[in-house]
Amino acid sequence: MDFSNSAYMQLYDKINDYLLQQCIALANSGGGTFIRESIWEFPVIEGIHVLSIAMSVGMIMWFDLRLMGVNMKHRPVSEVFHGVYWWMIGGFTTAIISGLLLFWAEADRAFPNIFARLKFMALLFAGLNILYFHTKTQQSQADWDHDPVPPMGARMAGFLSITWWVVVIAAGRLMAYTF
Amino acid sequence: MIDKTIFAPFFDWMSTFPVGVAISNSKYAFAVIEVFHLFGIILLLGGASLMSLRLLGLAMREQKITEVSRSVGWFTFAGLVTMLVTGFLMMSSIPTKYYHSVPFWWKMGFFWTGVVFHFTLYRRATRSDRTGLVLGGITALLAIVLWYGTGAFGRAIGFY
User: Fold this and answer.
1) Which among A50, A58, A174 has the least Cβ separation from residue B35?
2) What pLDDT score was predicted for residue B97?
3) Which residue of A has its CA nearest to B47?
4) What is the pTM of this model?
5) Does A55 sit within 8 Å of B45, measured CB to CB?
6) A54 to B45: CB separation less than 8 angstroms, yes or no
7) Between 20 and 30 A from B92 (CA), which of A34, B31, B70, B145?
8) Are B140 and B65 in contact (CB under 8 A)?
9) Tens digit of pLDDT for each residue in A11-43?
């Protein structure tokens, strides 16, 4: 069967084409051009992006490992969470801001890139994982806050979090190779 | 300052190192190794950051210094080893590029100072609960400057 002319594919092509045009316009805007053609701004923003990711993932990781029952097993889950909370928020906010600036400069090349799409997808899943953990799994946290090894749901949340960040970092690095 | 030409024989040897040649002949090997290099950096920076924040009294104050040290120490060490192995592999694939890169030599300066610091002052400060704010603060700031500096110069190699 040939799906290439199906209604779905036509719709996909239309959306894809529309977004690509928007991304081209974004990259060619004054701000995008300025960042891209700058001597030192672009490298500095990219440096900040990499180091802030290291900071945020490096902090999130300790909470994920605690959720998985691997590390800091004899401290309450909530204590480990509060210990890293503001640092991971700070690192993540910096990573998002610097990432948006980089996207602004190279949106036309990032949008069609398979690794960029993989990175955005992984970010989305990481977000959904946090949302599910916060709204469902965490509701019973009082029951397992002191457990060296938390229940399956919490362990899964930690494992999935690390997995999605690994994909984000790998895809993020690989997208720069395929621009 | 050390004259970099004393390292020239090492770089010459690396250019004939079969694994390095294989990496430079492969389309994806370098990229994949660099991804693992980043994972190593995350472990090292994540460990050194949390430990430094604890020494400064800015995070995990409920835990003793030695408790945090025991929890993150092995991850930090694993990150260091991963960085070293993958870094060597990357270097061996294009030794002349690194030899002529200015940020590379800055990175090496920060990195090896970091390694010496890691096994001396840092080790001493993080393995005692009596480490005060002065020794702890100096250790934390040094750890942050040395390891984040290593990362920043490493990123700069790609540009300059």
Assistant:
1) A174
2) 93
3) A58
4) 0.92
5) yes
6) yes
7) B145
8) no
9) 999 999 999 999 999 999 999 999 999 988 999
The three-point CA angle B141-B114-B11 to 5° equals: 150
Q: What mean pLDDT is predicted for residues B27-44?
A: 95
Q: Which residues contact A53 (CB under 8 A, 6 or more apart)?
A: A91, A95, A168, A169, A172, B42
CA–CA separation, A75 vs A147, rounded Å? 9
Quote ipTM for the complex: 0.91
Assigned token pair, B136:
């702890």
Q: Does A43 touch chain B (CB under 8 A)?
A: yes
Give pLDDT tens digits for A99-126.
999 999 999 999 999 999 999 999 999 9
Cross-chain residue pair B155–A50, CB shorter than 8 Å? yes
Place A71 in a pLDDT band, splitting at 50, 70 and 90. Answer: very high
Q: Which A residues, 159 through 178, put their C-beta within 8 Å of a C-beta on chain B? A: 166, 169-170, 173-174, 177
Chain B residue with CA closest to A176: the answer is: B31
The answer to whether B38 contacts A83, with C-beta atoms less than 8 Å apart, is: no
C-alpha to C-alpha distances, A173 to A167, A176, A178, B32, B109, nearest whole angstrom: 10, 6, 9, 9, 25
**Distance, CA of A2 to chain centre:** 35
Contacts of B39 in chain A (CB under 8 A): 166, 169
Q: Which two tokens stand for residue B149?
A: 């500096």
pLDDT of residue A1: 57
